[in-house]
Amino acid sequence: MMIMAVGLLLCALAALGQALICQARARGAADAVALSAAAALLYGDGDDPCAVAGVVAERNQARLDACVVDGEDVEVRVLVPTGMPIVDAAFGRSRAGPVPCR
What we know:
It contains two helices and three strands, in the order H-H-E-E-E. The chain is of the alpha+beta class and 102 residues long. It has a three-stranded antiparallel beta sheet. Keywords: Signal. This is Flp pilus-assembly TadE/G-like family protein.
């Protein structure tokens, strides 16, 4: 009985660790996606920043869930699959754009 309890505890800890790793990957992917989209908006030759965001998200093994252009800023939300049946995806949000010099 004790061995089964320890086994279940180890499985729960492994699942929690997997979820935390996926959450960190989602935050990192969201940062990269937002920066790429903001750069496309600022320096691009008419490239759609949200299309650029989608390509960068895909290259980071993520899926672009939302992309909003607000002036010179871009806000994105990406989903990263966890591979777990209970929590199917972790999400990350990020906002990027130029900062005014003072």
